[in-house]
Specification:
427 residues, alpha+beta, five-stranded mixed sheet, nucleus, RNase_H2_suB_wHTH, Rnh202_N, RNase_H2_suB, Ribonuclease H2 subunit B
Length: 427
């Protein structure tokens, strides 16, 4: 009977090293684009999202402020990757008698996802609105020192508390708090009380700045141009012919044609419009391009400001505060008047309803024009179908793919072998 000797200490150490071998993680796993220069105390923090309250990753620099991360990535159905290659450094040729130093080779790396996390600045004002705004239970807030307001929040995340108590960032933080609060000096200390009107005025100032600098192309096209676009009106050719007043030259030519004998060519030319387009048929006639007027420029600017306000309310303010701001903007105490914009949007809605009602529903020979939303829905369905097909093809094995290429014409199906046998005829 053969027995195995006990493992030595060297064999045990080799087994332990093999068991503790770790697989190297992908480098870099995420690609951040951070601002520069930053202070030595700059760091990544988990702060509550101003809109939802969930902890989210932010970049904080005491000198530059708070930054949120915006993901820049290609569409999901497009496979992309990023190659990170080391930068080649130029080294001077060694002089005579000196040995050339060998630098360690630096290998490149590839990321599986081609996405960047770009740090974009966010106003610290939005993080203080949930702290300074009074709750529904407490009612109207009182004047309080800034430190007392912070200490009253027992469930405040520790990272947010570090930001609020940072000495280098304290000056800019108090300046943003004064923009949305009423301030009273009590000795050497300032007392703050939240003011909704000042918050609305501050948001309008931000929205006006965004409108003057220009909205992004996607927002401008989707929420400004398409919203103010007037529809194509469908009119009858009979109405067009009767609405046009004949000119003097046309009247003279008509009188001359009456004196002449009717000829086939004359009849054909006069009857051409009725032959080309049957009477009563409606055709879309585009509206004449209206020249840019000061009124239309004012309405366009109001729509840009309204779009910027909607973006800030939906992204950086709680739902209760956003609804409260909507009430203030709709009231007579609003710092900005959106009545001309609302009247214009109502007029465009009426024109679109008239254009929809003027369509000849009995004529099914023409294809109905697709709206932009329907086109987006069809494109989204098509894209999802293509993604599912790609996933199905990727999950199939090579044997299944080869079996699909086999010519099965003339072969019986597998179910034919499991069918019941036909009853035998009695002799």
């Amino acid at each position: 009977m053969k027995t195995r000797s006990a493992p030595t200490n060297s064999e045990k150490s080799e087994d332990v090293t093999k068991a503790k071998t770790l697989v190297a993680a992908e480098k870099p796993s995420k690609t951040f684009i951070l601002p520069s220069p930053t202070s030595d105390n700059a760091r990544l923090l988990s702060l509550p999202d101003p809109q939802s309250g969930e902890l989210t990753r932010y970049f904080f620099c005491p000198n530059r402020g708070i930054y949120e991360f915006t993901v820049v990535a290609p569409p999901a159905h497009m496979g992309r990757s990023i190659l990170f290659a080391p930068r080649a450094r130029e080294t001077q040729s060694p002089s005579e008698g000196e040995e050339k130093e060998s630098e360690p080779a630096v290998q490149g790396s590839i990321t599986k996802k081609a996405e960047f996390l770009v740090a974009t600045p966010v106003d610290a004002l939005f993080f203080m609105v949930p702290l300074l705004a009074p709750s529904a239970k407490s009612g109207r807030s009182l004047f309080q020192p800034f430190d007392d307001i912070i200490d009253s929040q027992d469930d405040m995340p520790k990272h947010l508390r570090q930001v609020l108590y940072d000495d280098e960032f304290r000056g800019s933080l108090l300046a943003r708090a004064e923009a949305i609060c009423e301030v009273v000096e009590a000795g050497d200390e300032k007392m703050f009380r939240f003011n909704e009107t000042k918050l609305v005025q501050e948001l309008i100032t931000k929205a006006e700045r965004m409108a003057d600098r220009g909205l992004p192309a996607s927002l401008e096209e989707r929420f400004v141009r398409q919203t103010l676009a007037t529809p194509l009106m469908a009119v009858k050719r009979e109405d067009v012919a009767t609405s046009q007043e004949p000119s003097n030259e046309s009247q003279e030519s008509a009188s001359k044609s009456e004196e002449r004998d009717d000829s086939p060519s004359t009849v054909a030319t006069t009857a051409t419009p009725s032959v080309a387009t049957p009477a009563g048929e409606s055709t879309p006639v585009p509206q004449p391009p209206s020249e840019e007027s000061p009124a239309s420029d004012h309405i366009t600017r109001l729509l840009r400001i309204s779009t910027a306000l909607s973006f800030m309310k939906e992204s950086y303010l709680p739902a209760t505060m956003a609804s409260r701001l909507d009430e203030i903007l709709a009231s007579a105490e609003s710092p900005i008047d959106f009545k001309p914009l609302n009247d214009r949007l109502k007029e465009i809605a009426d024109l679109r309803a008239q254009a929809l009602a003027s369509r000849d529903l009995s004529n099914f020979s023409r294809k109905r024009g697709l709206d932009d939303e329907e086109e987006d829905i069809r494109g989204e369905k098509k894209r999802r179908k293509e993604e599912e097909e790609k996933k199905t093809k990727a999950s199939q094995s090579q044997a299944v793919k080869n079996l699909k290429k086999v010519n099965t014409s003339g072969m019986q199906k597998m179910s034919a072998f499991f069918a019941k046998a036909a009853p035998k005829k009695k002799t």
